């Protein structure tokens, strides 16, 4: 298993980064929050989880080992794969997700695309006693946030990221329209995405 990667960041997307390790560019899927800690041209270190399938090897990266542990733990529940696990962490974040599971807050869990009432109840039932130990500190060496982007290109990027998380195109479009005037003038794409996710959870 590839437990971590460290190298120079070659590319940063909303939900992935490319880290050059030993001359090889490694595509690492991340949450938007983790992606914003990486900056092109700077070194980054990420805790990682390698998901092996018959036809693919997919690497997922996290700014903290506790976040990676949560990613792997939620997948022990039947029906939760890496894509849904990453969506859970993208929408709620590791601390909020752990708190919701510990409290048995199924209502909060159902704000995540792909999780209904029954799935939320199953998650709480199977994970409530497991998540208390999943806490840690960020991995040393993560990059700094990228500079702010201009105003309009963020719309398409945020819409694409929301659809990738499981929201419908209409939900994503409405969320993007809803935050257009709410963000600070110097907001970057990640800020717009966080505001859109917050709006979708209301």
UniProtKB/TrEMBL annotation:
Chief location bin: cytoplasm
An individual GO BP term: DNA recombination
Domain of life assignment: Bacteria
Localization, UniProt: Cytoplasm
Pfam families: HHH_5, RuvA_C, RuvA_N
Keywords from the UniProt entry: Cytoplasm, DNA damage, DNA recombination, DNA repair, DNA-binding
GO molecular function terms attached to this record: ATP binding; four-way junction DNA binding; four-way junction helicase activity
Segments forming domain Helix-hairpin-helix DNA-binding motif class: 72-91, 107-126
Annotated region (Domain III), positions in chain: 149-202
One GO CC annotation: cytoplasm
Function: The RuvA-RuvB-RuvC complex processes Holliday junction (HJ) DNA during genetic recombination and DNA repair, while the RuvA-RuvB complex plays an important role in the rescue of blocked DNA replication forks via replication fork reversal (RFR). RuvA specifically binds to HJ cruciform DNA, conferring on it an open structure. The RuvB hexamer acts as an ATP-dependent pump, pulling dsDNA into and through the RuvAB complex. HJ branch migration allows RuvC to scan DNA until it finds its consensus sequence, where it cleaves and resolves the cruciform DNA.
Subunit structure: Homotetramer. Forms an RuvA(8)-RuvB(12)-Holliday junction (HJ) complex. HJ DNA is sandwiched between 2 RuvA tetramers; dsDNA enters through RuvA and exits via RuvB. An RuvB hexamer assembles on each DNA strand where it exits the tetramer. Each RuvB hexamer is contacted by two RuvA subunits (via domain III) on 2 adjacent RuvB subunits; this complex drives branch migration. In the full resolvosome a probable DNA-RuvA(4)-RuvB(12)-RuvC(2) complex forms which resolves the HJ.
Record remark: domains: Has three domains with a flexible linker between the domains II and III and assumes an 'L' shape. Domain III is highly mobile and contacts RuvB.
Entry-linked HAMAP family: DNA_HJ_migration_RuvA
Similarity comment: family membership: Belongs to the RuvA family.
Protein name: Holliday junction branch migration complex subunit RuvA
Gene encoding the protein: ruvA
């Amino acid at each position: 298993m590839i437990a971590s990667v460290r190298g120079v960041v070659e590319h940063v997307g909303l939900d992935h980064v490319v880290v050059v390790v030993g001359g090889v560019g490694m595509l690492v899927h991340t949450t938007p929050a983790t992606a914003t800690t990486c900056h092109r041209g700077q070194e980054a270190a990420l805790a990682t989880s390698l998901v092996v399938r018959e036809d693919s090897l997919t690497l997922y990266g996290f700014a903290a080992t506790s976040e990676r542990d949560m990613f792997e733990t939620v997948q022990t529940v039947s029906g939760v794969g890496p894509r849904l696990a990453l969506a859970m962490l993208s929408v709620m974040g590791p601390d909020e997700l752990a708190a919701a599971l510990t409290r048995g807050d199924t209502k909060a869990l159902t704000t995540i695309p792909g999780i209904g009432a029954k799935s939320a109840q199953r998650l709480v039932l199977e994970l409530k006693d497991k998540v208390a130990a999943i806490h840690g500190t960020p991995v040393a060496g993560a990059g700094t946030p990228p500079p702010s982007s201009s105003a309009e290109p963020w719309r398409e990027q945020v819409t694409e990221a929301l659809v990738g998380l499981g929201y419908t195109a209409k939900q994503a479009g409405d969320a993007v329209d809803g935050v257009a005037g709410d963000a600070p003038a110097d907001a970057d794409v990640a800020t717009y995405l966080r505001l859109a996710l917050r709006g979708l959870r209301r």
